[in-house]
Design a protein that fits this description.
Elements lengths: L1 E9 L6 E10 H15 L6 H6 L9 H17 L3 E8 H7 L8 H20 L6 E6 L5 H13 L9 E7 L5 H22 L9 H8 L3 E6 L1 H18 L3 H11 L5 H16 L5
Parallel strand pairs: 1-4, 3-6, 4-5
Antiparallel strand pairs: 1-2, 2-3
């Protein structure tokens, strides 16, 4: 079984950039990594922003020790066979497309889906072919809708890699080294995009931790900038034509069922359309 741990990261005001990471490996690889990770952290629940800022479990640790720990953990990740993938999106561009967006979890689910798709395809290409088990950080705002969406992806027709999806579960950073790993990777890619592609240009050079992860070729990401979302907007009509999923149809469905626009109901609507198409009621 190939297991992927996932987490999210965003700028301090959740206004400019949003990222979701996935880091995957075989169970025996995770077991080895966990032993080495806990030895370095001395059992502390590692949260990358807390380590850098000297908060929470790192409030009593001197800065030079915190920075060495961060560097050592990055080096540990590079030394393993783990593979990381991060989807980073420009929130300004995203929000221009979804101007009526009242659900702050939509950027999360957009990135979440792309991470799932990436690792499902990877599982299909593994030799021997393998299913992928996903474990994401606990988030009461997104987990229920994520589960519905994951179930939809695993069962929908027309996508070749749904059969590679095993179970989806959730756990907390404090209980899981895997989530701590995904947190570090998500933050590094988010910070790089915010520092050099989106936010105010405060630095001349990328973070050494980001450069190390990227140069290893084991950790990579995609960045969806403003141009990506402008191109996406121009393709919406074609997407609606191909899928039969339209904004007007969705809004009408919300009204008929007296429910609100949120991620859970978006996924309920998609599942309902799929059911109608299967029964031949909708083409």
């Amino acid at each position: 079984m190939f297991t992927v741990f996932g987490d999210e990261s965003y700028d301090e005001k959740r206004e400019r950039v949003f990222a979701v990471s996935g880091v995957g490996g075989k169970q025996e690889e995770w077991d080895e990594l966990e032993i080495a990770w806990l030895k370095l952290t001395e059992g502390r629940a590692f949260h990358s922003s807390d380590c850098e800022a000297g908060r929470e479990d790192f409030a009593d640790m001197k800065r030079e020790h915190r920075m060495k720990l961060y560097k050592d953990l990055v080096s540990l990740l590079i030394s393993t066979n783990m593979l990381g993938y991060v989807v980073v999106t420009d929130l300004t561009g995203f929000n221009k497309i979804y101007e009526d967006n009242v659900d702050p979890s939509k950027p999360y689910h957009h990135c979440f889906v792309r991470v799932i798709m990436h690792f499902a395809e990877m599982g299909f290409q593994l030799i021997p072919r393998d299913q992928v088990n996903f474990i994401f950080d606990v988030n009461t705002e997104t987990n229920f809708a994520s589960g519905l969406l994951y179930d939809y992806m695993s069962k929908t027709d027309g996508w070749n890699f749904g059969a590679q999806l095993d179970k989806l579960s959730f756990t907390s950073l404090k209980k899981s080294v895997g989530i701590q790993v995904a947190d570090l990777v998500a933050r590094e890619f988010m910070k790089h995009c915010d520092n050099f592609l989106i936010g105010p240009k405060k630095y001349k050079y990328p973070r050494e931790s980001f450069k190390a992860l990227s140069r290893s070729l084991k950790y990579r990401g995609i960045y969806e900038d403003g141009q990506y979302w402008r191109d996406f907007a121009s393709k919406i009509q074609e997407i609606e034509k191909q899928t039969g999923i339209t904004r007007s149809g969705y809004l009408q469905w919300l009204k008929e069922n007296n429910v609100k626009d949120n991620s859970t109901n978006v996924h309920r609507y998609l599942i309902r359309l799929d059911q109608l198409k299967t029964k031949g009621i909708l083409t």
